[in-house]
Amino acid sequence: MKNEIRKHFKNLRNSLTEKEVKEKSLAILQTLTSYPFWQNAKHIMCYLSFGKEVYTKPIIEEAWKANKQVVIPVCKRETCDIEPSQLFSFADLEPRTMGILEPKEGKLMEVDPKVIDLCLIPGLAFDLMGHRIGFGAGYYDRFLPLLRSDTPKVALAYELQISQEPLPSENFDVLMDYICTEKGLYQSTTLLQEI
Questions:
Q1: Do the Cβ atoms of 20 and 14 come closer than 8 Å?
Q2: Could you tell me the domains of the chain?
Q3: Which of 11, 16, 7, 3 is nearest to 181 (CA)?
Q4: Listed residue (123, 141, 114, 100) closest to 180, CA to CA
Q5: Whole-prediction pTM value?
Q6: How many CA atoms lie within 13 A of 152 on its CB side?
Q7: What's the pLDDT band for 96 if we cut at 50, 70, 90?
């Protein structure tokens, strides 16, 4: 069931053109940065986008411009754990497995998950109750409980990644607090802002 959902939403996402990805990602950045959870955060964890994911380079640059510390998830494939690492420059990264950017040798700067004030999360599909379907390895399901309970968990997604039907979920799944799309910000079942 989950694999069929993954395939369906991955195909939808992959149908976007590069131009659409850039335009929608820019709208997501504008929405995201207009909320207090962004403005008040000192340490922001943000994934490094890959393929047709919501493009995060401008988000990271915006965080640096606002004197925020940027933390990236580094995936440990042998344990399927995420190691949060501070990022000072894109020059500290290089493509590793499957071309995903990761810190170069000696550039991993481990960070205590408890210092993270805002966590931006990728995924393939989301529903309006905050359920998320990722790629299936469980990296974020293991990592998110390590954050402080008051750290907002914000999914970045295109509107077409939101399922109108409830997604299947497990007891260990961690719910998103918000979903930020090019249309606006969802909290639970409410659209807080429409652009």
A1: no
A2: 2-194 (3.40.50.10420)
A3: 16
A4: 123
A5: 0.94
A6: 24
A7: confident
